[in-house]
Amino acid sequence: MRNEVVVAAAVTTAAAVVGVALLLRHWIQRSERRLRHAQRILRNFARRCATPAAKLWHVADELAAEMEAGGERGGNLRMFVSYAAPLPTGEEKGTYYGINLKAANFAIVRATLDGKNEPLNQLLKQEVPVPPSLMTNSESSKELCDLIAFELAKFISVHSESTDNNKGETVKRSKLGFTVSSFPIDHQLAPPSAAIATKWTTLPFNDTARKELATEVNQALEKHGLDYLRVSEVVNDTIGDLAGGRYYSKESVAAVTLGIGGTDIAYIESPQQISSPIKDPSKSDETVINMQWGNFNSSHLPLTEYDTSLDAESVDPGSRIFEKLISGMYLGEIVRRVLLKMAHEAALFGDSVPPKLTIPYLLRSPDMAAMHQDTSEDYEVVQEKLNEIFDINNSTPTVREIVTEICDVVAERGARLVGAGIVGSVKKMGRIENRKSVIIVEGGMYERYRIYRNYVQSTVWEMVGGEFSDNVMIHHCHGGSGAGSVFLAASQTAHS
Q1: Burial class (CB in 10 A: 0-12, 13-18, 19+), 346
Q2: How many CB atoms lie within 10 A of CB 101?
């Protein structure tokens, strides 16, 4: 009897072991199938995002052709004569002040220029938050201008090197540089908020609006005892970056903004080359054209189903297609959409889809960059970000590797398209083969996203080839964000 019990127990145990083994085998096979499906989605996505040199040249050629036509032929570029006053020469010296207006704050900038052979000296920046009510007042900007002048007066009183008896002498009769950064559109808010952002972003391209703002700022400056400072021009901050580049090099011919919230480009053109739709009435030897290249579109752009759905669900479907492929505002969202499809179809994060993964624009580009640049053995930064952003705490190292590969595909495509845009712009200026061109680049995507920055640079070198690689140089902007306003102040003062 005992033997029979022992045998029965052994049989039961063996059956249990076999059952567990079968379940384990089934679980492993199911996991492997899901993983293979996720990898197929990734491969298909990477194939659709591919940007071989031939495709990039198609993009560059089409962009150059639209620039040549000045936005005609039904093109998407919006080209504006944005600055016709003389740019810095590198001879300007002295202490100057500038204002850089952003979406939620403005920066007061002060710096001393010692000539083109010397770096910026005594660079000071102070960011001041702006109450949302001031930014959303579409009727008047007077309260905002009053705040700017009030804070600037306090800033000068603290940082001016003058004595109380001659306060203001170091900046007497100076121009105050004033630049406006791109305002990101909050896709989670109602359309009126997007309209407000559009109002401020397009301000530098509306002659009437920017003149009105300059007048209101000057009135506020007088009210607060800063009548020795005057704003003569309100311009896009990309033009400020170009002014900074021009101060140090006559070969600086364009500036590109690659920010978390938007992208833009400005370049120098001679008045003789400006076509009728954007004709410049000034007599300046050089004119700065801002072409808002985010609006560029082409059949050669490598669009995917994720880009199509992102555009369709955006506040401006059919617009700013190029920007939606390259700008920091959108790259993280594209990654999220790919992850969501993998979660639905390949159960990448388990049998249920993490609820937060369904929330649009929850993944921001800085977090995408952190995951992409994770060099730890088991992708610990990726694990931390997935948990922090999406409440995903069950990812495996293999899954986290897939996440980084998605980030790489999105970042590489965006950066290579930026490179093509830069090459196309230089081609339009006729400078690839016979003259050196310096392109100034500013913005968080370029400054803090190392892999993205490297892709931009390598793409330009790849496209122009070894023979002309030294003819297109990419330099980071001088002084960082907002510093361009100081260079504008210097040149405007010198030529006033």
Answers
A1: buried
A2: 25
227: CB partners within 8 A, 6+ apart:
221
Distance spanning both ends of the chain, measured CA to CA: 113
pLDDT score of 398 more than 80 = yes
Nearest by Cα to 487 from 53, 156, 175? 175
Cα gap 333→311, rounded to integer Å:
11
- Is 90 exceeded by the pLDDT of residue 378? yes
What residue type is 237 in one-letter code? D
CA 411/CA 338 separation, integer angstroms: 13
H or E segment and range at residue 494 = helix 484-494
Specify whether the CB–CB gap between 453 and 446 falls below 8 A: yes
* Residue scoring higher pLDDT (188 or 287): 287
**Nearest of 32, 54, 138, 78 to residue 323 by alpha carbon:** 78
Residue 424 token pair? 């196309």
Rg (CA), the chain: 27
Mean pLDDT of 469-475: 92
Question: What pLDDT is stored for residue 47 in this prediction?
Answer: 98
| Beta-strand relationship, 472-476 and 80-83 | unpaired
pLDDT at 280: 47
Return the exposure string of 301-315: e unless at least 16 CB atoms fall within 10 Å of the residue's CB, then b.
bbbbebbeebbeebb
**For residues 238-270, b (16+ Cβ closer than 10 Å) or e, as one string?**
bbbbbbbbbbbbebbbbbbbbbbbbbbbbbbbe
| Whole-angstrom distance, CA of residue 241 vs CA of residue 441 | 8
Task: Give the position of tokens 């919230």.
Answer: 261
Q: Residue 299 contacts by C-beta under 8 Å, 6 or more apart in sequence?
A: none
Q: Would you list the DSSP string of 305-329? A: HHHHHHHHTSSSTTS-HHHHHHSHH
Q: Minimum mean pLDDT among 108-122, 176-190, 352-366, 389-403: which range?
A: 176-190
Largest CA distance in the chain: 114
Find the mean pLDDT for residues 222-250.
93
DSSP 206: -
- b vs e for 189-203, b when ≥16 Cβ sit within 10 Å of the residue's Cβ? eeeebbebbebbbbb
**Residue 85: C-alpha distances to residues 232, 278, 288, 411, 493 (Å):** 10, 16, 9, 37, 11
Whether the per-residue pLDDT at 64 is higher than 90: the answer is yes
Question: What's the Cα-to-Cα distance from 243 to each of 124, 254, 266, 459, rounded to whole Å?
Answer: 18, 9, 10, 25
* pLDDT value for 25: 62
Residue 403 Cα to chain centre, angstroms: 22
Strands (E), 1-116: 80-83, 93-101, 105-114
- Residue count (the chain): 496
What is the pTM for the complete model shown? 0.88
User: Residue 410 is which amino acid?
Assistant: V
